[in-house]
Amino acid sequence: xxxxxxxxxxxxxxxxxxxxxxxxxxxxxxxxxxxxxxxxxxxxxxxxxxxxxxxxxxxxxxxxxxxxxxxxxxxxxxxxxxxxxxxxxxxxxxxxxxxxxxxxxxxxxxxxxxxxxxxxxxxxxxxxxxxxxxxxxxxxxxxxxxxxxxxxxxxxxxxxxxxxxxxxxxxxxxxxxxxxxxxxxxxxxxxxxxxxxxxxxxxxxxxxxxxxxxxxxxxxxxxxxxxxxxxxxxxxxxxxxxxxxxxxxxxxxxxxxxxxxxxxxxxxxxxxxxxxxxxxxxxxxxxxxxxxxxxxxxxxxxxxxxxxxxxxxxxxxxxxxxxxxxxxxxxxxxxxxxxxxxxxxxxxxxxxxxxxxxxxxxxxxxxxxxxxxxxxxxxxxxxxxxxxxxxxxxxxxxxxxxxxxxxxxxxxxxxxxxxxxxxxxxxxxxxxxxxxxxxxxxxxxxxxxxxxxxxxxxxxxxxxxxxxxxxxxxxxxxxxxxxxxxxxxxxxxxxxxxxxxxxxxxxxxxxxxxxxxxxxxxxxxxxxxxxxxxxxxxxxxxxxxx
Length: 546
Prior knowledge:
By secondary structure, the protein is an alpha+beta fold. The protein folds into three domains: 2-18 and 303-480, Jelly Rolls; 62-296, Alpha-Beta Complex (Cathepsin B, Chain A), CATH 3.90.70.10; 494-538, no CATH class. The protein is 15% helix and 29% strand.
């Protein structure tokens, strides 16, 4: 979704009108294995995948991530409307396999908790038992709440009881990047490329048993259904393959598509329709009525030597841009301020959201003065630059940078190369004045905008609107222990040399994460050579370990 701030030069803020585009599911509806995806009222009901790839496509006629070993076992969501959680978790389990972390059984209950209303009233305004969700609640939890193992919080562990206190459970991983495939981008070719590259695409369709050919697990809905019917049929699944030659005769007799071809989906109903073939001509697979489609592009490992710093709790709700009141709405730096831990003085990744595909970006470390980022761009340190490859969430890595102060800021400059203003993901309330669908935990005076000679505080913008809820930019930074800081005390000194030496003679043990930090030459082992390199670094004989 896109939201535009329009600021008059007199610093009177004007915002384009916005009313909720969503219908809230009635709390009494318990449709169980369907109805888990909340319908987006007013969205296009047309199928976004009406055609298969042309004969000149370089993509194969058949592909399955199941055959490649990238898909974990099918699970069962039971009678809860939690298909969004199961499809997102399936995508994350596949991403872990593809990125070499091995097979995990992740907790859907943890995802369901994260995407429910908290005791302080914030978060998604849904209970975790009866109400469905939006697809972006699914990838929001992957990037913000992270994932834990099923054994840590089993599914339906508290069927009706509300629970909140999970602070003692640390996420194992976060999704680093999310490719969001919106209406203007979703094609059969794009879908197939994303499946081959990332293992699968989370998508939704309208499921009704009347369109199911049970012997072949083949599904095709060619009928145009009313929104009153669709509101209870939305189901989120994980698309993991395709077959251009899947026989049209395999679909329900008397209700068959015109041509061969189908998508392979991983379901979440246990042995009941564990995998389903959905016709290329299905009316509602990837329809905008059920929101965006997405793929997990990479992962961030969370451990004692990594810390994902963020000032927004729940992730992106809008892509926000500015028109008027800034020097150039097509060249804007969006900034968040951070408290950098002394134990994590190095930063190596910045995560942000934008829909400016093809735009150029620069990432900066920006000094602050009393919590305000400096306008003096000569003091900014460029950490990375590149071009935006897709709409969604990006995890940009760069050479580790030692932050000079415990207080600082990260700026993401987006330079649009077309007529679309620069945008950034923002965690802001969703709904209208009478019906909130989402409420953030906003931190005031932590997000800022810089364009040419114009500087704005996001909190100030909201104040002009008499908006006392506001929001923050979804810019995060991965802080790390410095390479060589084996005892994790914030300094590379003789104690780190001693730590490595003691480890080499087996007087002490190190955790897997500490071994990664101590292995300064990255040869896979910690030995005397690493201790020598640390000594040379302390003596300033070498400037870095790379």
